[in-house]
User: What shape does this take?
Amino acid sequence: MAISFPSDTLSPTEWFTRFRERYDLAASDPASELGVFYHRHVDFARGERSEAELLGEYSTSEWNQIMSGLLGDLARDFGFYQTTDPSPRQDILWFRPVEPMKLAALIVQEDQATEAVTEQELPLVVRGGAELGILVLYPDYPMPDGARTLEEATDVWKRKIESELARHRPPSDFLLLTLGTNSWELPSRWQAFAWDSAGHRLHPLVDRDRPSTPG
Assistant: This one.
């Protein structure tokens, strides 16, 4: 069995590349939890099945549980140990397996794109003490004022978060990870934006396999 040793640094670009690769593989596998989820819900999302046919099957807690499992697999790929915050928030924590344990990543998922994102979640990530802070956001739920498409919604939230980050000045790497609530394509439409402390901006990441969607 191959043993994975964590690298000295957790690169945002490497994290995003490996996350999206694992996500796409799982989503296309009908035997995986994410693959089963896709199989059950993609037709409904496309308007090909009625809500009554899927009544009670979809829930935010189910999605969060699947994402937690996927991220746990990814943590092991990197050689980290994943656990969850014992508070009701259930944020995801990645630790380096050293003594004393060091927090490598803090991953916060926000189910709704509301003002709580900038007022509560963002400061939590910035002050979390992790080498890499990651905020997972679905920017079109609900659709922000003035936006009509996922791309416009993503841009609205990117600019809001960018402004707040300039004010909070993150002491370590920060990653904004976004996906539309009805984005079922494979390859997936996940986007990632990394904080550039010198330029005070969020810049889109491009993984080594394919370009990021402009945003």
User: Anything to note?
Assistant: Confidence is low (pLDDT under 50) at residues 211-215.
